[in-house]
Amino acid sequence: MKNVALFVDTLDIQLMLLGGGLLVIAYWVLLNFLLNNDQQKLMEINRGFGYFFMTLGIYAFAVGLWGTFVWPLPSSYNIVLMDPLTLYGIALMALGFVNIYKVPIIGVLSGIAILSIPIIVYGIAIVHFGLTNSPTGAGALYLLIGINGLLSPILQTRAKKYWSYIAIILLILAALLSFYIGIAATFEHIEGWRSWAPFYG
Hints:
The protein has six helices and no strands. The chain has a single domain (26-193), classed as Serine Threonine Protein Phosphatase 5, Tetratricopeptide repeat (Alpha Horseshoe). It has 201 residues and is an all-alpha fold. The protein has helices at 11-33, 39-70, 77-101, 106-129, 135-150, 160-193.
């Protein structure tokens, strides 16, 4: 049975939504830490960002948690691909909360820094064990996101302006990489599932 998928696979849409989320975060960093916007107007804009972060975060958290319990992917792929999605969901929901309710962000950024440590470890593990069709690309994606998150508390220091430029560049690079891998996976997975039919079909 050549090129027939034998497992539940939602990675393509997850990767593309990851890329989209990273681009929105980059735009949020630009508006909040680089541009001089009216504070009242910025608070209203951030509330909109907050609802988006919260919605996408709930989706990522739910799918990641489902993957952790159900184990839909083969072998250790489930560990390195589903567990980080859960952490991404938690980080997005936390960002959404501070933007909606206008609370100080330093605590959330500190939490995101801690959540980023496993992402870096998973990225190294992907490269070390040669997982996915592109271990280098996937590992680079994880490292870009992990390093960005680990150093995100710098946004609350005097160096925030300089770090904002670096953070935006890292986020855009990670987003482009995520889109590239996700789009490539879409065509590969559709090809793999073409011959599959449900038991009732």
